[in-house]
Amino acid sequence: MASSEGFLTEEQREMLKLATQNAEILSSSPKSPSSLLSDHPLKVPASGKAPNTGIAVRHVRRTHSGKLGRAKKDGAGGKGTWGKLLDTDGESHIDRNDPNYDSGEEPYQLVGATISDPLDDYKKAVASIIEEYFSTGDVDVAASDLRELGSSEYHPYFIKRLVSMAMDRHDKEKEMASVLLSALYADVISPAQIRDGFVILLESADDLAVDILDAVDILALFLARAVVDDILPPAFLTRAEKTLPKSSNGFQVIQTAEKSYLSAPHHAELVERRWGGSTHITVEEVKKKITDLLREYVESGDTFEACRCIRQLGVSFFHHEVVKRALVLAMEIRTAEPLILKLLKEAAEEGLISSSQMVKGFSRLEESLNDLALDIPSAKALFQLLVPIAISEGWLDASFVKSSG
């Protein structure tokens, strides 16, 4: 019993000690109260009587209804509590009329972007260039536009597009297409790309025949014209023929070109004039005029008159032919070499023959040296002598040596 001074009896001291130990067990364990009681039985005093004090009740949260309200996981609280500080279970809503509205708080949206195909873009661009050329007939503008377009790796598709568009039009456009191909050859489009373009055309002959009834004959004429204009070597037909199925229209195109056009007497003139009625002058006629004016120049030595005649031809895109034929004439008539070199130098300095046309003329002659050697055995040796002279005098770009090497 307690004394009058308020001291605890021994029994009371033992009960207080046990109550403190039991409270520490309950508060230090993360388990629920029910499992805790089963794992850690409460200690009772030696007398066997259970303590009548309310131990651990202060650790349990109760609502006003008397129900047990355990805390939620992560400390969110139970029913009737405020919940977590950053509880975002509910959907948020942004009010654009709110004075504190910030557009940066709007949820991000992924916007799909269309990825364009460079080849498709190129085809659309060249179609526009070709349409304008057919309308104006300006070869120089068409060449400049194609050069500015870039993407030179796709030039074989320009060949296909130009020829296929012309095939479905009148003879005028067909002739214009052939003239443009000759003008672009080696200057804007390399010889290899010209060949690749015609390969694509031959492989597409079956599809072209669906829309164009006489596609085989027209394409055969384009092929023959390319051989006559020296932009395709005759050996191309033999090589291409081996790669095509005999049942294909492409194979028939080559057969028609060889038998109907290139094997006929005076075939060059016939091929040149097939569409030439719609133009003022054919390529073959231009070649003849160039040969005539060069021979007249060799006889007269009048450089001014020769330059006037070249200018009067009005075919600046075809000046590479002047260069090529002038060099061949210098090889045929050795005494004419000084005059020929003087004419070419004068034409280059005046700007009459552009640097690209000069390089193109030398390139075309270099490609035909093997055939030319049959008539002029020393053609290769003479050509090797002419090149350094032209470069040293400044009327042939030094890049020719790198490109040809």
UniProtKB/TrEMBL annotation:
Family classification: Belongs to the PDCD4 family.
InterPro entries documented for this protein: ARM-type_fold, Initiation_fac_eIF4g_MI, PDCD4
Entry annotated with the keyword Ribonucleoprotein: no
Domain MI span(s) in chain numbering: 121-242, 285-405
Domain of life: Eukaryota
Protein name: MI domain-containing protein
Keyword Repeat included in the entry's annotation: yes
Natural source organism: Dipteronia sinensis
GO CC entries: cytoplasm
Biased composition (Basic and acidic residues): 86-99
A Pfam family assignment: MA3
GO biological process entries: negative regulation of DNA-templated transcription; regulation of translation
Biased composition (Basic residues): 58-70
PROSITE patterns for this protein: MI
